Fold this sequence. Notes:
The complex is a heterodimer of chains A (170) and B (598). By secondary structure, chain A is an alpha/beta fold. Helix content of chain A is 53%, strand content 14%. Chain A contains 8 helices and 5 strands, in the order αααβαβαβαβαβα. In chain A, strands 2-1-3-4-5 form a 5-stranded parallel β-sheet, with helices on both faces. In chain A, helix 2 (21-28) crosses helix 3 and helix 5 runs parallel beside helix 6 (105-114). The longest helix of chain A has 17 residues, at 153-169. Chain A is elongated, with a radius of gyration of 18 Å. Chain B has helices at residues 3-73, 76-89, 120-123, 166-174, 210-216, 253-256, 258-305, 318-398, 405-437, 449-467, 486-502, 534-537, 549-555, 561-571; strands spanning 94-100, 106-109, 128-129, 133-134, 141-151, 154-164, 182-186, 192-194, 221-226, 232-240, 245-252, 445-447, 470-474, 482-484, 509-517, 520-527, 577-581, 585-593. At the A-B interface, helix 4 of A face helix 8, helix 9 and helix 13 of B.
Amino acid sequence: MIKNIDDKIVELIGKNENISTNEISRIIGIPEKEVERRIKAISDVRQKIMIVDDEIATLLPLKRSLEAEGYSVIEAVNGYEAIEKAKTECPELIILDLMLPGIDGFEVCVQLKKDERTERIPIIMLTAKDEMRDKVEGLEMGADDYVTKPFNLNELKARIKNVLKRSQEI
Amino acid sequence: MRIRSEQIIFFLIISILPLSAVVYVSYEHSQEVIRNSVNTNLLVATENTGKAIDNWMDARKDDIRIISSIAENSEKEKFREYLSSFQNEHEGVYQEFFIIDPDGNIIFSTNPANAVPFLKDALEGRLFISDVSLSSTTNLPEVIITNPIRKNGTITGIMGARVSIENLYMIIEGIDIGKSGEIFLVNNKGELIFNKDRFRILHENINNNFAVKEVIYEKRGVGDYINYKGENVLGSYYWLPLYRWGLVVEQNRDEAYADMLTLEKETAVISIFAVFCVVLVAIVISKRMTEPIESLKNGASSLVKGHFKTISVTSKNEIGELTEIFNQTAEELLEIRKKLETKIELANKDLGEKNTKLILANEELKKLDNLKSDFLSMVSHELKTPLSAIRTSAEFLGSEGTIEPDIRKEMLDNVISNVDRLTRLINDILDLSKIEAGKMEFHYEKVNVEEIAKAAIENIRYLALKNNIAVSMELPENLSPVLADRDKIIIVLNNLLSNALKFMYKGGRVLLSAKEEGNDVRIRVEDNGIGIDDDKVTKIFDKFYQADSTSRRKTGGSGLGLTISSGIIKAHGSEIYVESEPEKGSVFYFKLKKYETK
């Protein structure tokens, strides 16, 4: 459905390079702002990484650093938002905090791995929980990596690269 | 074997042994008596018969003697007349009188029918009685009695008489010898000379009869034998030497011993009756004895099963006493049992309660354990998150390449805000540790409530403005000062006010008020914010607890504010109360003691 809308937008632009967003909005029947957002998203060819943390401000250096590296970074501040955005935005990677309000990181991981639309998205768990059982539990649930806070920025970036590389190879 | 059967058998043994002995002895004795009496009766009958015969014969002999003496001296004619009258007098007895001379010629006869040979004995001067023979004239049995006739001492003739013994027979027949009794007279050859059946007389020889055999050997006695008719008889035999007659009196044995049969029957009946009585008595006695035992047994078995009923005491003997004792014991046992059951029930209940308590305690411990690990992970999270931010910011700033000035500023602000956050957290933790360890110092003094209220509101003014929340104060005039630690109460008010601001919709209101209540002043912080769910109200004073965990990060609290506030107010000897309704708002209040001027 969502893909279809994007496909239609691409199709319309393909037919007429100079078509306005207003026209597209009328043809497909969605708000003009949504059309603009979608066109921006479609035209963004950078790899998209979603960071999930209820205290997103503490991940600001990570965000800036990833943006500097050329990634597109989107944010989610709770589990529901994370699942929803994983489906709509289709990030290439998710950095997931475990201590989330509402449904926690473990549950988000389970939900993502259950849905065929999101099951292939690699997940790096990022948390203050540094007990071995938490690590094991996270990895068993299908996380691709597990990083504890406080973390080394360069190390995390290296891990992100590795995970992305692995997922692309598959 | 059951007591009852044992007792009956016992009774039978101890009663039947002497009983049968007694019965046997008395039976034997009675039999002996009966036998003796039967024998005696027979002998008496025989003797009576013998006597009757003797008497009769004696009378005849006397008659002959008298007549003989008369014949010696009388005229022939007169003598004939006399004899004739004598004959008439003894009608039928004397068939003929005659006189024989010594040569044997009949010289006189009253009825000269047939000559009778004279007899040697008579000639020798003795009275002679002939054997029984049938009369030549009448054909009836008769004897001839002869006696010598003397004249001056010399035997001149023989006086004789043919005597019909029919008369004697009739006398004998008149003797009572019982229904089945029979009298025989036999001669020395065994020929019948008397029988009620006259035709048999001198026509029948019965010397094969035991008694007859004995009697013709001139013996006397009593015998038990089979007679000529083939009947079992008792026979008494008696020899009459004078006439050479054997007298036999027989009696049917069964009849003679009829009494004995009766005795046997009676003995049997009595014995059976006695045994029956013994058995009956044994049954009755054993029943009387075993019934209480039986009810004791039943009582005991029902006692074992636990539904005992008092056994009725039917007798006053040892068993009765035993029953009474048993009843008492059973009642005591049941009472003990009841008590025990009650105790067990109580114990069970107690155990159940203890178990429940233990389970609850265990759950509590588990909860505590969970809380502990929650607490630890909270602390870990709270400390590591800002540390992480500081570290990554520094790393970012230290990285190669150019950083735009606004991003550099952003990073530095991030470092500062996280350092502040950590500082606050560490201060809070230190405060809390002090409070918990009882080491926080309080300086109690006279405190003006209005002054501290204004100070507290001033502290949060910026935050309130930012969130567009109206904070108002409502204090009565001349409010009494309180005894408190000024700075600590300001901390409490700040915490409560900033909580109210944090959990609030935009445009809400917060009211700080106070009023006197007796010796106390009640201070109240009220908001119309989001409120707290009932199940979370009790937990909000826990460390790091946040009623809505989504709110924590936004509000930036450490999660220790209420815990610290509560500790401070407790140190003032009071408590923070909370009343809240979700979506309507919350009220926090506490009391402080008035400052009293001495």
